[in-house]
Amino acid sequence: MAIFLREADVANFATMTMALSAVEEAFRLQGQGKAENAPRRRCRLDKGLLHVMSASLPSLGYACLKSYTSVAGQTCFHVHLYSAADGGLLAVLEADLLGQMRTGAASGVATKHMARENASRVGIFGTGWQARAQLSAVCAVRPVETIVAFGRDPERRERFCREMSAALGIGVYAAAAPEAAARQMDIVITATSSKEPVLEGVWLAPASHINAIGSNFLSK
Q: Does residue 215 carry a pLDDT above 80?
């Protein structure tokens, strides 16, 4: 019988270290032609969209799909995990936190392999849900000493910096202007669904590494 895991269950057992290891292994297998990853498909609803993504790792014995709805400003995420041996449903997971960690881990793996090993200064655009996992993942793979964050809402920006400073044990400082989150930074993260560009290339320091997430739609 399939198990059902709620958000609280995922929070109790999943860690960023686990996510980094799993995502890196999945990328490695995909590079070897041992995994399949289908493009996201969307179906329109009266007040939103249904989104579906699927993938398989035959060598590990699993296949899964992630589906979520975005309706009237609300989102609902689930993952269905199947056995590759007999096709049976193994688990259904509420997947808001899981998706946050997976997205952060993808940036963490990219940073691990492409950013300079001594990268210690991080700038981030965006102070929302995804921004938190982005910083957690990057800090897990590089010796980060300073983080500068910019978001359009000053109050939310200050709160984000306080909370992430406490969570990471690293100084996270609010940027009064967007360029302050890019100039002299070793790593720059854009975690925003803004319809307008948030990062100007002229702000970037030589050899800086960029993790750009959030632009998964033509209007973003």
A: no
